[in-house]
Amino acid sequence: MRFARFVLVVQAVIMIAFSLAYWLRPYEMANLNGMLLMETASVSHMRVYYGGLQLGMALFLLWAIREPERARAALVMLVITMLALAAGRLGSLWLDGGQLIGFDLASLVYRFCAALLAAGALLAMRERAAAEAPAARVEPPTRRLVDEPPQPFRLGDVRPEPSESSESVAQPFRRGDPAP
Q1: Which of 35, 43, 88, 107 is the most interior residue, by most CB within 10 Å?
Q2: What is the pLDDT of residues 128-146, one digit of tens each?
Q3: Which helix (H) or strand (E) holds 159?
Q4: Measured between alpha carbons, how far is residue 155 from residues 113, 148, 152, 158, 162 in Å?
Q5: What is the pTM of this model?
Q6: CB contact at 8 A, 90 and 115
Q7: Inside any domain, residue 142
């Protein structure tokens, strides 16, 4: 779980840093990506989609650190997201004829490394959970209502009828009977 937490914290810090950069310096970040923001709406979209989405994902990763089930879900999300972004970069390189190989290559390396680290952490969590599962199972002791061994049923055995004069004998519950 330590390795998984480490991966989640590192990715959350990177996403928060990029989120703040896109929020505070949208023109500079767009220029680094080869974009030119001409309208106020473009700046707003840059802040929302590049800044806000990364911040939301980072907060999810930080929230998921506390419990193993949530950490597994966050690692799966991280693997899928990073592989989808890497596939988008590869598709972009193919469609553009490899013109931005330097920029796209650095992004590809980062995305693949992040996906591999998250997948490795996910596998380590599964292996550890599988190793701990048999040791964690403790069967609760079974308690019987009667301490004597069970008696075999014989044909012709009937339940003893309670005597009508005795008030202490519990009567069977019938639906609709008022409570005594």
Answers
A1: 107
A2: 766 666 655 667 767 667 7
A3: none
A4: 73, 21, 10, 9, 21
A5: 0.65
A6: no
A7: no
